[in-house]
Every structure is written in C-alpha cells, then in structure tokens.
Fold:
Amino acid sequence: MAKVIFSFDTEDYINPGVDDFTRRICEVFDAHSLTASFMLVAERARVLVARGRMDVIEALSRHEIGYHSYYHSLHPNVAEYLDEIDDWSQGVAEFLSQEHEGVSLVRQVFGRHRLWAAVPAGYSWAPQMVYGYAVLGIPIQSGSALIPPRNHSYHYLNQLHLDYNLYIDHQLLGEWDAIPAAFDAQLDAGAEYIVTCDHPTILLHS
Structure:
C-alpha cells in the first residue's frame, strides 16, 4: 500500500491574503485528523512573525514543517548564486552560508528540533544544494533535483529522495472528478509514495 503525503509549497510572502487561506487548509486537515506537510520558505516564516500571525503559525505547527529555500524566486536564487562558483567546496560553503540561516529561522518560528524534508524552489537547484541539505541534517528531499525512478524512492547521501509525483492544483480548482483517477493511476503504477504538490497561493488566486 502506498504512503500518501499531502504537501503544500508555502512560499508566498508578498500577499497577506494567503495567510488566512493557509490557516483554513490546516483546519480542513485538522477536521479529518490528518497531518499535512507544509514546505516553508524562510522569508514566509519571518513575515508571519512580523505580521503578528501567531494564529497561522499555531495552525501550521500542528502539521509537518519542511524547508523550501530562504527566498524562493528572489534573485539571485539558488541556481544563480551557485552558477558563479566553479569550485565544489566553495559552492557548498556558499549554499550553507545562505540556507543554514533560513533552516534555523524556520525551526525557531515553528519550534522544531529539526526539519524533516526539503524541496527545491521550482527549477532553481544545483548539485551543491542536494549535498548541502544532507549536511544540514534534513533526511528527506522531495521534488529533488535528482529525480527518482518514476514511482520509486531511493537513498542517497543518507537521505530518502521522493518524487513530487502528483500535482493537483488544477484538480483542486475545479476538476474534482479527476482526483480519484489520478491517485488510482499512481497506485496502478506501483507507487511506493504518492506525494501531492499543491500551492496555497495558486489555489487562492487562480
């Protein structure tokens, strides 16, 4: 039987309206006694504190908290600031110098001893990122730059790597009847894990 992980890329630190919507998503899972996974951009965590949104922080804290880079798409992003560095060790050091602070910030805001998962910010990635998250003690990467064989997991650098294999933003926006078939297709293909990828800001604004 496949394990299902409902994962939300929680990345929009610009629009305050997404805060209430994120809390509502948490409450839907709470009502069904389910735990979701929220991949937090560090700047989003900082902004929640700055806005005084302890209600949102408390709602998110009832669920799994992961990491989704410090600033996501703000330039220079991970791929851009590492593209200028040819030396492997220097690239790893640069990644750690930028993202260690972000990981620490998310842990502090949500009272976590460790973060269990990390996902890259879209297509912004580099090999040093994969290695760097292992150094930071994050045991799972999903949506990894090193895409696992379809519907299978693998271990690399003492981490579990999972595919984001079910994007359902569009189905949640109105194609509800397609969702059971999408899950069935993953099960028929022998998926070990079904990891959904959803974006609160897309669901709110589309």
